[in-house]
Prior knowledge:
This protein is mostly beta strands and 382 residues long. It has five helices and 31 strands. The chain has helices at 2-13, 37-40, 170-176, 207-213, 340-344, and strands spanning 29-33, 50-51, 60-64, 74-75, 77-80, 85-87, 93-94, 101-106, 113-121, 132-135, 140-142, 150-152, 154-155, 161-162, 166-167, 187-190, 198-202, 204-205, 217-218, 221-227, 240-242, 244-246, 250-260, 265-266, 281-288, 310-315, 322-331, 333-334, 348-355, 365-366, 370-380. The N and C termini lie far apart (62 Å). The model is unreliable at 1-24 (pLDDT under 50).
Amino acid sequence: MKKLISMSLISLLLVSCFKEEPSNSECDIIDAWVEGEELKAFFYNEADMHINNIPSGDQKIVFTVRSVNGLPPIALHMNMTPGAISNPANGSVQDFSKGPVVYTVTSEDGQWQRQYTVSFTKPVTPPIVEHKMKFDFEHYKLDDANNKYYMWYEVAADGTPNEQVWASGNAGFIIAKPNAVADAYPTIPDVNGYEGSCVRLTTRDTGNWGKTFKKPIAAGNLFFGEFDSQYAITKTLWTTKMGIPFTEEPLKVTGYYKFKAGSEFTDKNKNVVPGKVDEPNIYSVLYRNQNAAGEKVVLHGDDVLTSDLIVSIAQVASLPETDDWKPFEMVFVNKAPIDATILADRGYNLALVFSSSKTGDTFEGAVGSTLCVDKVEITLKK
Length: 382
């Protein structure tokens, strides 16, 4: 009975309506899009006019445009859960040039509501200095929705905070251990970095929830992209939506790390594997973010290293255990030509991934394995 009660509480954490609601949310915007030939010139790609499969927990919908200047009033079209209505109305014309518009979605029975902030903005990218992007992991905060776990953000050259770069599995760990304190999550800040703060990734036990769903560990990870918690139980590798649009050709990634393996490596059934020692993982992938039909594509944990859309890949061959900070470097190897025009139009995504357990995505690893990373730099082609 206690396990059933626990699972009911976990289900409630998967949604973020104003009131407590059933696990099947009835006030979601599932897809959002705009139409019209006159709008195409404002977007880098026609595929950017559609945002599909919006995660249930997301309450910010951001369309990326070349410029907000001259942006005409726009009718936002939405696919919502059956029977739901929105205010402003679905398809009504709004002036997004003056800033975000808040949509309140109400369920068919009128019992549940969720607010979405919809905006049209220019892309905010990390600063480039001397053909390098630098990530020091100094900017972090507790998440907005739950105030329970850490998330990282970057700051643009003009001081604008950018939360669209980094994601982690922390947003899934809250489902397994909703009462955990922030420092007990897999991905946390550490003030004892190579210089200033660093990110500390630790493989954690997922407790009774992990035993129930045969997902006994959660590797600490940090990656370019988004985490989609709606797949946490059914299709775990799809929780990681890898990569962000990138307009520069990457040549190599460097940084500093420390790593210590946990004492016992276990398989997905939590059986100890004698003699097996856990390893961390650091890799990066540049891939085409549209398919042959012009549809938007994002890679997940199950195909980020194998997709035919990959044009360049880099991976650290070995990361030996060390108590002291050591440098790492990985060089991109091109698998296909990189088109300069497609690159300039944000037609490629770059995935950059750090994980405390190399096979943590299949729930194999050692609880306690800890990878610290700091002073990461992406060198770009001149």
